[in-house]
Structures are given as C-alpha cells and as structure tokens.
C-alpha cells in the first residue's frame, strides 16, 4: 500500500476548511479585487467576515465551538449535500 | 434580478475543454457550473441570486455562522472536484462578480499572471501538515535535565522558604518557555526537511486548544506545494517522523491533496 493511499482524502475538519477558504486571504483578495476590477465587484464585507471567523477560529473561548462540534455539524452537512 | 457570477477558479482553456464541468452544481445547489473562456484561460463560474449573494444579502448572511459553514463547505467540495479534474487556481470563498463584463476585465488584465501561476501549479499538489505535542514528557525532561533549569533549582534550594515559593513560580514559567523553545526547534527541523522536497511552502497560524479541542499543543501548521512525483517520498518522511516522535508525545497530522489555496494569490505588484 502506498503512503498516498494512507493519507489521501482523509476526513478534513470543517474548521480547517473554514480557516482555509475564509482566512485573511479574503481580506487581501477583497482589497486587490476592488483595486483592479473597479467598484462593481461584490465581495463579503471583510470586517463582518473576519470577525465571524475569528470568533470561530481564533478567540473562541466558548468550548461548544471547537473542532469536535464543528465536525458533527459537518457530518450533518454531508448528509444533506450528498 | 441581477445575474451575479460566483467565480470558483481559473484553469487553462485546453484543460477545461476536455472536461464535462457542467455536471457539477454550483454553490446554490441549483445552477450548473459554466466555463467562460478568456484567451488561454477559462473561468469556472455559476450564476447566483442577488437575493442570497448580493452585497446586502451577504452582509446579513455572513453574520450567520450556519450559513457561512454550509456555503464554505460547499465551496470547498466544488473546488475539490474541480482540482481533481484540472490544474486549478482556486478562489477564496465568495469571490463574486456583479457583471460578466467585470469578470472579463479581470481575466483579460491578468491572463499572463494566471498563465504563469497555472504553469507553476501544474502537476503539483498542496498538502497541509499540523504538528501536535503532548508536552508532559518534554516538560519532565526539561525540568529534570535542562542545565539552566538545574542551575536555577540549585539556587532556589539555598533560599529562604518565602523566596523559594516565589522563585518556584518563576521557575515554572521558565520551564514552560523552555518547552516552547524545544517544541519550536523540533518543528523547524521537520519543516526544513519537508521544505527541501517542496516547490513552495506557507506557514499558517497555529490554533489554541479551545479551537482544536485537543489536549496536545499545536506547534506547527503549514501548507506545502509539492510535485506529484515527490509526494510519496514526502509522505514517507512524515510517516517516519511520526513513528520517531511518537514516544516523545509528537503527533503529525497530514491532509490533502487540497486545492492549492495557499499558493494561488496574485502578489500585490502584479495587481497594480
């Protein structure tokens, strides 16, 4: 068995996905896109998004919002989306 | 209602042409994906409703964590399917254009940069690595064997009882700090080994325990862009490192291959 088969497409925690697809890159990207595409690009209100992600990912002191809870929510999502 | 375009990613036209992408559903779960060609590149988009993805709607929706979770997850799922089929420059969540015209402008203006980037990403994969440490053993080791700590212990034992109490507290802090340093040294060493096998790497923020929900400390969080041919060696190295570090409380978690999220942004200079 190859090493790849061992690791490939293992379950990824929802929090990892959120951290990656939302992260501060959104902010930077927002700025960049605004500056290159004029004003008619819709983008997520950065402050709002970043604060919601930070609540989730960084400063979460609420134990109910940790990775495990998110994973159970992800399972529920998978049932819906598959 | 305005037809907004949600952009998932950019690929080479020749690759897009050979794939049946329209079978995939977009972020709203209804509209199929569309491929729009611009020169040598293609944009993969789907139309979305202004009622859900317009600027005002997003302001409300993004404050609802449930909406963000569901849609961000879908975004990722769609990009996973795309990256399995194509060389892809993945977009971040909610990259939306109000008009096809503005998408065209962006595509035309950056065709060369997209091409260069796609060339760089071709035949490579992104893998993410997180390194965790159960610090009990390391703490014990530092407390019992680190020369500076031993010296301080020796000094404390000569002090009066009251002083000893205060100094012990300080000593605990020194031990914590030393443990942190040892952890950093360890993961930097691992990282440099992995880096040598990779085209590019990106350091990510480590999460605290509230976020991970684990007992162990997260000591490293990084993304690695690596040639497909080298992935096996890379993963072998990680497996070995995992076995070697296990007894000392180290755990390495690998996920992938991801869409190359961490290696796909245009630098500022290219954008101006």
UniProtKB/TrEMBL annotation, chain A:
Its main location: other. GO terms for molecular function: structural molecule activity. PROSITE patterns: GAS_VESICLE_A_1. InterPro entries: Gas-vesicle_GvpA-like (IPR000638), GvpA (IPR050530), GvpA-like_CS (IPR018493). GO terms for cellular component: gas vesicle; vesicle membrane. It is found in: Gas vesicle. Keywords: Gas vesicle. It comes from the Bacteria. It holds the Pfam family Gas_vesicle. PANTHER family: GAS VESICLE PROTEIN A1, GAS VESICLE STRUCTURAL PROTEIN 2-RELATED. Belongs to the gas vesicle GvpA family. This is Gas vesicle protein. It comes from Halobacillus trueperi.
UniProtKB/TrEMBL annotation, chain B:
Keywords: Gas vesicle. It holds the Pfam family GvpL_GvpF. GO terms for cellular component: gas vesicle. It is found in: Gas vesicle. GO terms for biological process: gas vesicle organization. Its main location: other. Signal peptide: none annotated. The keyword 4Fe-4S does not apply. Belongs to the gas vesicle GvpF/GvpL family. This is Gas vesicle synthesis protein GvpL/GvpF.
């Amino acid at each position: 068995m190859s090493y790849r088969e061992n690791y490939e497409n293992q379950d990824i925690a929802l929090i990892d996905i959120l951290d990656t697809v939302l992260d501060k890159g959104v902010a930077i990207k927002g700025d960049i896109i605004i500056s290159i595409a004029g004003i008619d690009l819709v983008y997520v209100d950065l402050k709002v998004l970043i604060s919601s992600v930070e609540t989730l990912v960084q400063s979460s002191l609420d134990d109910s919002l940790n990775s495990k809870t998110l994973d159970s929510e992800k399972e529920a999502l998978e049932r819906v989306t598959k | 209602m305005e037809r907004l375009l949600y952009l998932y990613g950019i690929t080479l036209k020749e690759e897009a042409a050979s794939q049946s992408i329209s079978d995939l559903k977009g972020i709203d779960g209804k509209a199929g994906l569309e491929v729009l060609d611009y020169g040598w590149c293609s944009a993969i988009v789907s139309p979305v409703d202004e009622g859900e993805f317009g600027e005002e709607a997003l302001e409300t929706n993004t404050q609802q964590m449930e909406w963000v979770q569901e849609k961000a997850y879908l975004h990722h799922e769609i990009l996973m399917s795309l990256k399995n089929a194509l060389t892809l420059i993945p977009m971040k969540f909610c990259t939306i254009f109000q008009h096809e015209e503005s998408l065209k402008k962006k595509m035309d203006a950056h065709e060369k940069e997209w091409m260069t980037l796609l060339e760089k990403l071709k035949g490579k994969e992104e893998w993410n690595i997180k390194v965790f440490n159960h610090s009990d053993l390391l703490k014990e080791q530092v407390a019992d064997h680190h020369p500076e700590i031993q010296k301080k212990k020796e000094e404390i034992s000569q002090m009066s009882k009251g002083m000893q109490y205060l100094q012990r507290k300080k000593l605990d802090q020194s031990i914590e700090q030393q443990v942190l340093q040892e952890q950093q040294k360890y993961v930097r060493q691992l990282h440099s080994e992995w880096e040598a096998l990779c085209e590019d790497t990106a350091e990510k923020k480590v999460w605290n325990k509230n976020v991970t929900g684990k007992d162990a400390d997260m000591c490293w969080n990084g993304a690695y862009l690596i040639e497909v041919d080298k992935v096996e060696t890379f993963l072998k190295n990680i497996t070995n490192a995992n076995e070697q570090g296990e007894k000392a409380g180290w755990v390495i978690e690998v996920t992938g291959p991801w869409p190359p999220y961490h290696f796909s942004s245009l630098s500022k200079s290219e954008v101006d």
